[in-house]
Design goal:
It is a single chain. By secondary structure, the protein is of the alpha+beta class. The protein has one domain (about 5-80, about 120-205): 3-Layer(aba) Sandwich (NADH Oxidase). The protein has helices spanning about 5-10, 25-35, 50-70, 90-100, 110-120, 140-160, 175-180; strands at about 45-50, 130-135, 165, 185-195. The protein starts with a helix and ends in a 27-residue tail after the last strand.
Length: about 220
Amino acid sequence: MSVAQTLRSRASIRGYTEREVPIETVREILDAARWSPSGGNMQPWRVIVVAGAARIEVCEVARRALIRNPSGEDGDYPVYPECVRSPFRERRSLAAHQRYAAMGVEPGDKAALADYVARNYEFWGAPVGLFFVIPRDFGHSQWAHLGMFIQSVVLVATELGLGTCAQEAWAKVRESLRVHFGLPSNEVVYCGMSLGYPDWTQPINAVRTAREPVAGFATFLGC
């Protein structure tokens, strides 16, 4: 599968089979992704992999944290701007509508929506979770480089027949995660990721969100 084919076939998977992911496979993914580019070759990332009992523990950490503070622990790094303007607001709304419809969440059904959101903190049933960590004092450039690393993890996993879902929802329990993992105060968990074998019988995994055509975002000068 070419890189272009992998990009087009990739999707955020929100339903997984019970098939285990060998730790050797996770190491293979990370071993390939470590060759991602970064400014000055700083490689501003760390990864925490959880499976088995460790995965269960971190899910419980999130559950307790959200009981204490349902609004979350976003702090200085909110997932979205305070006011999402057009056309970004419409894109986000459309994607959410597609996902909710696939999972049978009716508009206004707060209980069903809460159950949907809560599954983020169970890795959507995936047997492996990853957390991406970056020094808190690093700037926008290093965060962008971390993003390239995360993209590499996603693409390699897809090539190997696995599914992933990068989850900024874990940002709502960042401080609790930092304490749980024993991270120093100058490190922050950017996001989590589900990793496992997709369950293609689940309608949510058939959702494909729209993308802007090239003409909608690219400007060609002197061509």
